[in-house]
Amino acid sequence: MSDSFRIRKVKGYQILDSRGNRTVRVRVETYGGISDFGDAPAGASKGTREAVELRDKDGGVTEAVRIIDSVINDSLHGFSVLDQLAIDQALIKLDGTSNKSRIGGNTTIATSIAVLKTASKSLGLEYFKYIGGPRVRYVPIPLLNILNGGLHAGNMLKIQEFIVIPKEFDTFSEALIASTSIYKRLKELITERYGKLYTALGDEGGVAPPLEKTRDALDLIYTAVKQTGYDGQVYLGMDAAASDFFKDDVYEIDGRRYSPDEMIDYYVSLANEYPILYLEDPFNENDFERFSILQSKLKKTIVTGDDLYTTNVEYLKKGIEKKSTSGTIVKPNQIGTLSETFDYIELAKKNSIKVIVSHRSGETEDSFIADLAVGVQSDFIKTGAPARGERTSKYNRIIEIERDYGLEYYGKKL
């Protein structure tokens, strides 16, 4: 193998994410003079089983950068960037813990992404082509979080994300235009009812009006869907992030306290009233059984695990065994390397579980997860509202891929 593919240097940077917090960027350079970077995003609502971020006491990442410049640089020197698995295994071994707590999941995922992107560039390939090869046929359906509650907002809503899903369209571009029209109409409705102040954007580009109850938010969004003429083409979704409002074995939502079994009826009633196609983390992250019961009752809704699984094969196996969900979120920084992410996606697909490649609330402007979603042929991509550069960069990248490579839109295939 040519020495030009071998790693000459690994370098770390302390950069800013979309919340103004510090995060890690890693640049990998080969002896052939090719280099590319990887960024580590960060979540606000996290599962307890996620890979651990290495952070300084003040929230910075100077120690993580030091480890990248010294330990990781020395360890990966001379590896071929084409050998993703060997490099990721070296990072896992270097850390030596089950949750990347020694050198940090933020350092390992940024390095892993930088390696893949550098390898792709070295071969003159688009990232998605390098990931997926000739199997790539289509682009995924976007899940757009256009109204926020929970930890993503300052209102009384407990559900964290209210989502529109533009399914019945011929192209990704058309689906995104429709979603943008709905988003704009939603902001107009909020301005009319509550004042322009409440159209200010949250972490993921969604609005956060002064609402208290889940149905109020669903009514508002569904009104915007109908008024823009997309009823029947655009569906609704929610990310409950229910672990955040679960305490002492009850769920506190809509000004009431619900038992876990009462929450099953709560979600079923919502799905009967609104065209809800997607429901993420409806229960706390340890309740595999009630996920399963709800999924059995909601045949047409994709009940999805995020905190339930944290992109970890061990927990996905448990969910498969219990038939807990028909969908899973994929966030590479939850597990810490791309090789582990690919293993996770493969297991999900083998068991007919729909794959949703997802951003984090603290993102960077890098559009890599768009290429990842296309490369692994995910069913969906979840990357926020059609606003804020760190969100639109992902959508714009898929528009680019769709047009340049003539890929189909997955919407009507689902």
Automatic annotation (TrEMBL):
Its EC number is 4.2.1.11. It catalyses: (2R)-2-phosphoglycerate = phosphoenolpyruvate + H2O. It is an enzyme of class 4 (lyase). Keywords: Cytoplasm, Glycolysis, Lyase, Magnesium, Metal-binding, Pyruvate, Secreted. Mg(2+) binds at D239, E280, D306. The keyword Metal-binding applies. GO terms for molecular function: magnesium ion binding; phosphopyruvate hydratase activity. It holds the Pfam family Enolase_C. Mg(2+) is required for catalysis and for stabilizing the dimer. Binds a second Mg(2+) ion via substrate during catalysis. Its cofactor is Mg(2+). Pathway: Carbohydrate degradation; glycolysis; pyruvate from D-glyceraldehyde 3-phosphate: step 4/5. Its main location: cytoplasm. One of its GO terms (biological process) is glycolytic process. Residues 7-131 form the Enolase N-terminal domain. Catalyzes the reversible conversion of 2-phosphoglycerate (2-PG) into phosphoenolpyruvate (PEP). It is essential for the degradation of carbohydrates via glycolysis. This is Enolase. The gene is eno.
